[in-house]
Amino acid sequence: MKTAPRMLSAVSAIALALTPAVGGGIALTLGSVSAAEAAVARAISVRGNQRVANGTVADLIGFRAGANYSAADIDDAVKKLFATGLFSDVDVSVSGGTLVVVVSELSIVNQVIFRGNRKQKDDRLRGVVRLAPRGTFDQATLDADVEAIRGAYGAIGRNDVSVYPEVVDLGDNRVNVVFQIDEGGRTKITQINIIGNNAFSDRRLQGVISTKKSNPLSWLTRSDIYDDQRLAADEEQLRRFYFNRGYADFRILSSSGDIDPNTGNVVVTIEVDEGERYKFGMVDIDSTVSGVGSEELRSTVSTRDGAIYSAEDVEDTLIAMSERLATEGFPFAEVTPVGNRNFETRTIDVSYVIDQGQRAFVERIEIMGNARTRDYVIRREFDLAEGDAFNQTLLRRAQRRLERLDYFERVDITTRPGSAPDRVIIVVNAVDKSTGEFGIGAGYTTAGAGSSGGVSVEASVVERNFLGRGQTIRISAGGGVDNRTYNISFTEPYFLGYRLALTGAAYRKTKDYTGYDLASTGGSISFGLPITHDLSANIGYKFQQDEYSNVTGSISDVYGVDVTEGGTWTESAVFYGLTYNTVDSPQDPHEGLYLRFGQEFAGVGGDARHVKSTVSGAYYKTLSDEADLVGMLKFGAGNITGIGQDVRSIDHFQLGAKHIRGFATNGIGPTDAAGDHVGGKTYFNATAEAQFPLPAFPRDLGLKGSVFADAATLYGHDDTTNAMNTAMEWRASAGIGLIWDSPFAPLRFDYAWPLMKEPTDKVQNFNFSISTAF
User: To the nearest whole percent, how much of the chain has pLDDT over 90?
Assistant: First the structure.
């Protein structure tokens, strides 16, 4: 086969010009000239073509009648033939006065066939290969497709896959391409070695990274599959972990995944240099921007003298300062933290230097990697849009928002120069992950006064990124011996394009009481509005209608209304709430404070007249980084008071396992003459808990233990005639728990022993809940 340069050497002294031929064909005249002169060929002959017509070849070359052609023109013409992708070879020669063009056409692919593949479906493999039916065939593409198939199997942990390509000639220049695949065994990560760590054990650091050793449940999680991108993300997780715990000099010296030639499995090795641990020294603000004083920005500083150095605290300060400067009319102001290490005292003095910054604008935001989530769901988490002033700090905030959505495996935000020196292109790479959950909650209640006991179960299906639109839909159903519940809710987090969450909910509940049955149907609509990064508010309206059946006589349970068979009771109420949340992770909290206050006013029409107030909070603190020991303190309180009338028994508070473990739902508090618990007007509850990894099990299994102590009281009732034991009596329990970060999602088992209880209380020692991702 002759390459283009060799063909040019054969015709370097020939120039061509088209002239009309007798009979309307294409003819060329050829003149004998020196290498520097043009020549005219008498004719052109195209040979070897089967599908491409002679005239098409001449058109592709671009010859025109009466024109003279140099060697450079012929060079361009031959390159054009190769560029079409129709030919595997082109040979140009001169025979007498005729220019002969001999071509070899590429074969056409009839079918692409996969054999031996069980772990990868045909559709998946067709998506990674480039050869396709009705396309052209060439050896280079075939070789590339073999490597693409190997890569697809490597992504599911089968690196020892073998691919044998076969080309079957069907005649008429058509071929079938057959990929014979020997999938081999699954390649596992059997060992993770971390070298150079002294402050934290291998076990603790292995809990930080997402790459895991193989265990009996790895076939579900696939976390034991080696992946270069996952390892790179794990490097960043280790950096964050160390930087936020005072190790400002931490470095990753190397990381690799090596295949053991004896077993074919992977050994991951990460070598680190921890460096020294630092505290914050002097913290200063140095502003060079006219009109911006240092003291007025002091309230935005999250770093404090003497505290353990934390890169996250520095980043929080940068974001807060940048937002303050932007609101005060300095959108291009740049905040740069400058650290000065003192190696003797192991402190870092931090100075936040503020200057005017370079004027730059966002040219566009490019989004990739999101196969499911819509682009606008990602874009709306940015406080920047095309044409806005570029601010690097606001990019960090957008990345944190996207990560907190928990829609993505990873989120990477980078920048590159735009079309002008003052233009910047933002590139977002967000890789989707599963956002569906299936939840089951269950408990067992022992028999007691007014109750036969039994099992209660609740199941729910939740999709947090419905159709990739960032919406949440939840459907649940549950019940026990004498009750049933059905719920559905839908949340649009950006109502009308604003950062305003709209939630609509509907429910149906039935319960059998002593002397009557009650069916409640209702719904609500609410709006949630973020006030600051950590503080949010909500306001809404709800309506409920209760229907009574199987009534024995009149029901004193409804004050002011004599409800008989078929009677109804309606509640129309408005409510609002405030939430403050600095908890670092909703799935695995280690640090932060959660506070919630809410009130409900019933009486906007309907029969009910009351005000209900609740407050709750939780505080998380890492007690030992090395042991990954996390402490938690939780509290709650509530009160309901009638407005001009008494409160129905069923509108009183009822406590359950989420308030105090060891007792059944509605298992404590005031009771009526029949011994049934009728709820209370006021409650208080508190919990102290410690969570820790179980030392006897591999960290990769995700098992944690807990010890806890709960206390609660429920008292007061408006029916002082029929209700008994309405005094304030404290209950207490203690227990142990097992928390499993299963392949499905967190699962928890608790067993509690009541330490303080009343004779009428209903005990429920065991409780568990499951939240399963699908």
Answer: 35
Sign of the alpha-carbon torsion through 165, 170, 176, 180? negative
- The domains of the chain, with CATH numbers, are 4-105 (3.10.20.310), 108-182 (3.10.20.310), 189-273 (3.10.20.310), 279-355 (3.10.20.310), 361-432 (3.10.20.310), 513-520+530-763 (2.40.160.50)
Give 288 or 637, the one with higher predicted confidence.
Answer: 637
Give 755 or 170, the one with higher predicted confidence. 755
Q: Using alpha carbons, select from 260, 274, 223, 157 the residue that is nearest to residue 698.
A: 223
Closest CA to 413 of 436, 390, 388, 387: 390
Nearest to 594, CA basis, from 548, 634, 639, 541: 634
Structure tokens at 167: 């080309």
What are 557-594's pLDDT values in tens digits? 444 445 555 678 899 999 999 999 999 887 788 889 99
Choice between 514 and 483, residue whose per-residue pLDDT is larger:
483
Q: 716 burial class (0-12, 13-18, 19+ CB within 10 angstroms)?
A: buried
Question: How does pLDDT run across 446-455, given as a tens digit for each residue?
Answer: 544 444 456 6
Which uninterrupted H or E stretch holds 410? strand 408-417
Residues 702 and 741: beta-carbon distance below 8 Å: yes
Tell how strand 98-105 and strand 87-95 pair up.
Answer: antiparallel
The CA radius of gyration of the chain, in Å to the nearest whole number, is: 37
Model pTM greater than 0.85?
no
Strands 98-105 vs 43-47: parallel, antiparallel or unpaired: parallel
Q: How many CA atoms lie within 13 A of 248 on its CB side?
A: 21
Rounded CA-CA distance 386/237 in Å is 30
pLDDT digits (tens, 9 = 90+) for 51-69: 677 767 766 666 654 555 5
Q: What does the alpha-carbon distance between residue 65 and residue 156 come to, in Å, rounded to a whole number?
A: 60
601 close to 564: Cβ distance less than 8 angstroms: no
Model pLDDT, residue 105: 74
Nearest to 174 by CA among 50, 56, 81, 57: 50
Question: Is residue 147 a contact partner of residue 165, using CB atoms and an 8 Å limit?
Answer: no
